[in-house]
Amino acid sequence: MNKTKTGIKGFDDLLNGGIPTGSIVLVSGTPGTGKTIFGLEYLYRGALNDEKGLFITFEEPKSNIAEQAMQFGWDLEKLEKKNILHIQHISSKTITNATLKEIVNFVKKEKIKRLVIDSISTLALSIPTIHNKVTEITDFAIKRFLHQFLEDLRDFADTTTLLIGQTTSEKHLSTDEVSEFIADGIIHILYESLGRDYSRSLIIRKMRKVKNDEDIHPLEISKTGLTVHTLK
Ligand SMILES: Nc1ncnc2c1ncn2[C@@H]1O[C@H](COP(=O)(O)OP(=O)(O)OP(=O)(O)O)[C@@H](O)[C@H]1O
Ligand SMILES: [Mg+2]
Fold first, then answer.
1. Residue 93 has what pLDDT?
2. Which atom of ligand 1 lies at the shortest distance from residue 31's CA?
3. Which of 39, 147, 168, 216 has the CA that lies 20 to 30 A from 202?
4. Which domains are assigned to the chain?
């Protein structure tokens, strides 16, 4: 089985070498847990290895993303100039059905190996705008729409996708209630109080096709990026 190494320190060992290539993996967590940084580091490390990446953000302008990455010394613009990395900001106001088709076509045409969607939650919120029927759209229609988009992505056996999902509480894995079931894997990032301090941790909730580690791991954001620690 082919594996895609995230390149995030300490992470790939938890999956015996990486994420099974072709998987769609949900990276979920409450605000400020480090989901966007996780997605950026995954693309950055891949790009250094000549794996083409695409970061779609519905959340933040491109300049924010570039600045956040630069904090860790990741020069995304340089990689964009080399055509090995693409960062696209799509305002949720302008998303249409055609936008999603364009994303799928771009992945195909450019042979994108690593795709990050930041976030699937904002995309789900934008679906009523896509249909232009804000009052009539049902939860069911939103779920079907997301399902179709993810099925289209699933056709790409060489593309490993991270769907970033925002949750409002630790009880939920996604806010759309679709991506967590469709996804082949779920990486959940927690931000919890430990006595008087807050700390981050990461757990792999599922990963189809491999035996995943089931422990909770401290997650550190340092000057050079993320590190997943093992306590044992
Ligand atoms: N250079 C840095 N060094 C250490 N920690 C940092 C650094 N830059 C950002 N952080 C931490 O990472 C957090 C932001 O991470 P990120 O943007 O990935 O979160 P997120 O999970 O995507 O949040 P949201 O759901 O709001 O989009 C900040 O709140 C801050 O605590
Ligand atoms: Mg984010």
1. 82
2. 25
3. 147
4. 3-228 (3.40.50.300)
Model-level pTM? 0.95
* φ, ψ at 201 (rounded to 5°): -145, 165
Report residue 124 as tokens. 């789900």
Residue nearest to atom 30 of ligand 1 (CA): 32
pLDDT (average), residues 50-71: 97
Per-position DSSP letters for 77-112, written without gaps between them: HHHHHTTSEEEEE--GGG--HHHHHHHHHHHHHTT-
Average pLDDT rounded to a whole number, residues 160-184: 85
Q: Cα separation of 47 and 126, whole Å?
A: 30
Question: What's the maximum distance between 2 C-alpha atoms anywhere in the chain?
Answer: 53
The answer to whether 45 touches 5, Cβ cutoff 8 Å, is yes
Q: Is the CB of 71 under 6 A from ligand 1?
A: yes
Q: How many CB atoms lie within 10 A of CB 25?
A: 25
Per-residue confidence (pLDDT) for residue 83, from 0 to 100: 97
Report which of 176, 198, 230, 146 is spatially closest to residue 34, judged by C-alpha positions: 198
The pair of three-digit structure tokens given for residue 151, joined into one six-digit string: 């099925």
Q: How far is the CA of 31 from the centre of ligand 1 (A)?
A: 8
Give me the pLDDT at residue 45, please: 98
